[in-house]
Design a protein that fits this description.
The chain has about 100 residues and is mainly α. The protein has four helices and no strands. The mean pLDDT is about 90.
């Protein structure tokens, strides 16, 4: 896969991950409903597949303490999901910046 194609794939993947998480957060904020299993699965899957996010999460847990998401309340799950949204938005912005710089 060439770099431009990989970059577009990575960008589309980030946008999908961000959108999925924002929809879960918005649904919880507007209706109070949270599909806990789906939210936890999305959080854990992204941590396991994104090395940068794994490191950022570990640093956050070192500061705030580690929490078992399966035992966490809904607000803490949403907080973790928002952390991922913020992280992924920064990652997307970096990718777009690199894209502009490389033409």
């Amino acid at each position: 896969m060439s770099n431009p194609i990989k970059r577009e794939f990575d960008k589309a993947s980030l946008i999908k991950d961000i959108t999925d998480r924002e929809n879960i957060i918005r649904r919880f904020q507007t209706t109070g409903y949270l599909d806990r299993d789906d939210a936890i699965k999305k959080i854990e899957t992204k941590i396991f597949t994104d090395a940068e996010l794994t490191l950022a999460t570990a640093a956050k847990q070192a500061q705030n303490g580690s929490v078992n998401l399966h035992q966490a309340d809904n607000n803490l799950i949403i907080t973790n999901m928002q952390f991922q949204v913020d992280f992924l938005n920064v990652k997307l912005a970096k990718l777009e910046l690199e894209e502009k710089q490389n033409g």
